[in-house]
Design brief:
The chain is an all-alpha fold. It has one domain. It has eleven helices and no strands. Helix 1 packs parallel to helix 6 and helix 10 packs across helix 11. About 40% of the residues are buried.
């Protein structure tokens, strides 16, 4: 492709794309914020109150508090994928992607703008869900710095994944295919609502092949200091996922995969 990177970082171009994407979220405020918050509240009513009150505590933590990190991660995965995939797919659908590719904005700047906007919206949603959860259960965050770090890294990683899905998708139905049929089941099987230590040894070993386990485990450790796997491994896996996706994005722009036509 002929789009050459500008010599200097085009912060005005990045800011214009970022602001446009953030404005789109404000136009769909009910879908972007209110619906996930209501859904999360229902999780607490059903799992935290109705079911959790009858279960023994997990790792010495009340069940309602235990599921908070998992619920935040579940929303973060879904919203990051949805925001980023639709953000880049819509220009493809309308044909304005070619204007974007011919503009004086490099591929790196395009990725920063779209992924940054999607991650910002997801992080904001995660914090809102955290505030909502605090209305139902007492929450303590032992490592707030690491909590923010895992939140930002996970949102950025899945926003990058969503960006790739948006380029790959040929129709709106494909935008929902991976989130609904792959990510959501992996999240429920990744320890969002339970500790994998509760599983039989064979199933626990099988769960370690689920990448979602490491993301949820590291994030839960930042709250309560307990984790299903080593925090160092969780951090390494998160960074590794991001690096792999970043390499894939670089390949897409280098080859023009599903961007040339």
């Amino acid at each position: 492709m002929s789009n050459a990177a500008p010599a200097r970082f085009n912060r005005h171009g990045v800011w214009a794309i970022y602001r446009f994407e953030m404005a789109r979220a404000l136009r769909t405020l009910v879908q972007s914020l209110v619906t996930p918050v209501i859904t999360t509240s229902l999780y607490f009513v059903v799992f935290g109150a109705a079911i959790g009150s009858r279960l023994t505590t997990a790792s010495g933590i009340s069940y309602g508090a235990f599921i908070v990190p998992g619920l935040i991660m579940l929303a973060l995965f879904t919203e990051s994928l949805s925001n980023a995939s639709f953000g880049i797919y819509f220009p493809k659908f309308t044909g304005t992607i070619y204007e974007l590719l011919s503009a004086p904005v490099s591929y790196v700047e395009i990725v920063i703008a779209y992924v940054g906007a999607a991650a910002s919206k997801s992080i904001g949603l995660g914090l809102i869900i955290l505030a909502t959860a605090a209305l139902f259960v007492p929450i303590k965050i032992l490592h707030p710095g690491w909590m923010i770090a895992f939140l930002v890294m996970t949102a950025s990683t899945f926003s990058l994944f969503g960006f790739i899905i948006g380029i790959w998708a040929k129709g709106f139905e494909q935008l929902q295919f991976i989130p609904m049929l792959i990510i959501t089941p992996l999240t429920f099987l990744g320890g969002a609502f339970y500790s994998i230590d509760m599983l039989p040894p064979a199933w626990r070993a099988f769960s370690l092949f689920n990448p979602i386990v490491y993301l949820i485990s590291g994030f839960r450790w930042s709250f309560y200091g307990t984790a299903d796997v080593s925090v160092a491994i969780s951090l390494s896996m998160t960074i590794g996922f991001f690096a792999i996706l970043l390499s894939l994005v670089a390949w897409i722009f280098k080859t023009g995969y599903r961007l040339k036509s």
